[in-house]
């Protein structure tokens, strides 16, 4: 595997850009309207609650990454906590699938904003066709090498963080610092809705794990992985709050929910006029494309590490190249299939279930087996678990009422993943002292 990873190929700014690239691409663009639908007029504060949950969660990843920087990131943490077991393989696959789900979410978001830019309805066959096309573009960028990804991520992250911040400030200024979204306060929200919406907002932050998964390639990883994670989360919470209040100051709640897949573009039209609308669409396209590229970069490495650890099967299907090239193709195929067959709301829900279950497993494993080795505080790890359970429970309750089918898909998928991992390891037991990068 050493030949497949390039040490010191990603600088600290590259790593921060990669993390913010994934977070902003999925978070503020794809999820604002969905969060508003669940939380009601208090939806901007959901991003704050999501940041709190993420901060407790990130503690585990920072501590582990500083101690053991690895190209496998999540897989490395699980392997050290649980060994070469089905729990490690299953939870790592859940993380990988949640990242691939994120890619399909971002790809469909790209498609909806592109269609809105041409004043077309973001529905029907054009959405999956465009989504698959941008997934293929992202694959081409990733196939060109690490340095291309790092430079592209840094440039795009700078453009979109600055551009989205300008949009937020301009929209709030144009709206006269009022908050239109309070008009229907009695019709939406509630405590359960707010907590459930926090599950979706966590998806807007989970891109920090992209940094964890690239640990072996970041310069001075024992310090810079943690610094990059903290910096990326800090940047994103400021951007999310600014834009959420900007959308709320420009549109009433019902309009935000109606345009939930492209809320920023709709908010730009009344606040900033036609020019602002098209600039916002362009900004959304940049944000989603760069987020997709960064996510694909990380998940392909994670799958390659799991393959190297002999925890998942691998076949090159006649393809040339190294394992990472093959896992990159697998990622593209699965993301494209999801983008074709699921809508944005369903994709986001599946991603939330997968990620939260995996996150709980990681915190518990570190608490039980590794906290003394890495100097982690037990109460922080337990708090992270408790917050995840509360958010996951509220989200499951709400989805049981709104879309019970997605609960069935999520449960069946999780059971299948762990059963698959158990079966594979039963017939292919890993060798003792398996190599770790």
UniProtKB/TrEMBL annotation:
Locations listed in the record: Cell membrane
Extract the GO molecular function terms from the UniProt entry: transmembrane transporter activity
Q: Which domain of life is it from?
A: Bacteria
Q: Name one Pfam family in it.
A: AA_permease_2
InterPro entries cross-referenced by the UniProt entry: AA/rel_permease1, APC_superfamily
Q: Does the keyword ATP-binding apply?
A: no
Q: What is its main location?
A: membrane
Give the record's membrane topology.
Answer: Multi-pass membrane protein
Keyword set, alphabetical order:
Cell membrane, Membrane, Transmembrane, Transmembrane helix
* Cross-referenced PANTHER family: AMINO ACID TRANSPORTER-RELATED, INNER MEMBRANE TRANSPORT PROTEIN YBAT
Task: List the protein's name.
Answer: Inner membrane transport protein YbaT
Q: Organism, per UniProt?
A: Roseibium aggregatum
Which lineage is the organism of this entry classified under, starting from the top rank? Bacteria, Pseudomonadati, Pseudomonadota, Alphaproteobacteria, Hyphomicrobiales
Q: Which gene encodes it?
A: ybaT_2
């Amino acid at each position: 595997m050493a030949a497949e990873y390039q040490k010191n190929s990603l600088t600290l700014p590259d790593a921060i850009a990669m993390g913010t690239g994934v977070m902003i691409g999925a978070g503020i663009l794809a999820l604002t309207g969905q969060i508003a639908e669940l939380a009601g007029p208090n939806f901007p504060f959901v991003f704050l609650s999501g940041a709190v949950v993420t901060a407790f969660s990130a503690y585990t990843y920072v501590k582990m990454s500083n101690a053991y920087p690895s190209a496998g990131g999540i897989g490395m943490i699980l392997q050290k906590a649980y060994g070469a077991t089905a729990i490690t393989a299953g939870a790592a696959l859940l993380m990988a699938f949640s990242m691939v789900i994120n890619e399909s979410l971002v790809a469909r978001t790209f498609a909806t904003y592109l269609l809105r830019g041409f004043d077309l309805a973001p529905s029907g066959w054009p959405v999956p066709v465009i989504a698959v096309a941008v997934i293929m573009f992202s694959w081409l960028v990733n196939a060109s090498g690490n340095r291309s990804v790092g430079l592209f991520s840094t440039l795009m992250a700078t453009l979109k963080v600055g551009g989205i911040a300008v949009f937020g400030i301009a929209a709030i200024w144009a709206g006269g610092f009022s908050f239109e979204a309070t008009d229907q306060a009695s019709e939406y929200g509630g405590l359960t809705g707010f907590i459930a919406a926090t599950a979706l907002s966590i998806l807007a932050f989970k891109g920090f794990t992209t940094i964890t998964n690239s640990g072996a390639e970041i310069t001075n990883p024992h310090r810079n992985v943690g610094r990059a994670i903290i910096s990326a989360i800090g940047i994103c919470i400021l951007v999310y709050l600014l834009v959420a209040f900007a959308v709320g100051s420009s549109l009433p709640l019902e309009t935000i929910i109606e345009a939930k897949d492209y809320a920023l573009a709709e908010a730009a039209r009344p606040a900033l006029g036609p020019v602002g609308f098209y600039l916002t669409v362009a900004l959304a396209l940049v944000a989603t494309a760069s987020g997709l590229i960064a996510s694909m970069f990380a998940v392909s490495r994670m799958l390659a590490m799991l393959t190297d650890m002999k925890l998942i099967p691998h076949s090159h299907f006649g393809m040339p190249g190294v394992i990472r090239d093959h896992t990159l193709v697998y990622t593209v195929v699965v993301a494209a299939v999801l983008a074709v067959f699921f809508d944005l709301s369903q994709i986001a829900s599946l991603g939330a279930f997968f990620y939260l279950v995996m996150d709980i497993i990681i915190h518990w494993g570190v608490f039980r087996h590794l906290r003394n080795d890495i100097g982690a505080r037990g109460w922080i790890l337990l708090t992270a678990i408790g917050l995840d359970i509360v958010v996951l429970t509220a989200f499951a309750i709400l989805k049981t009422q709104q879309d019970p089918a997605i609960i069935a898909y999520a449960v069946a998928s999780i059971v299948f993943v762990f059963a698959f991992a158990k079966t594979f390891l039963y017939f292919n037991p890993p060798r003792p002292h398996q190599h770790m990068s």
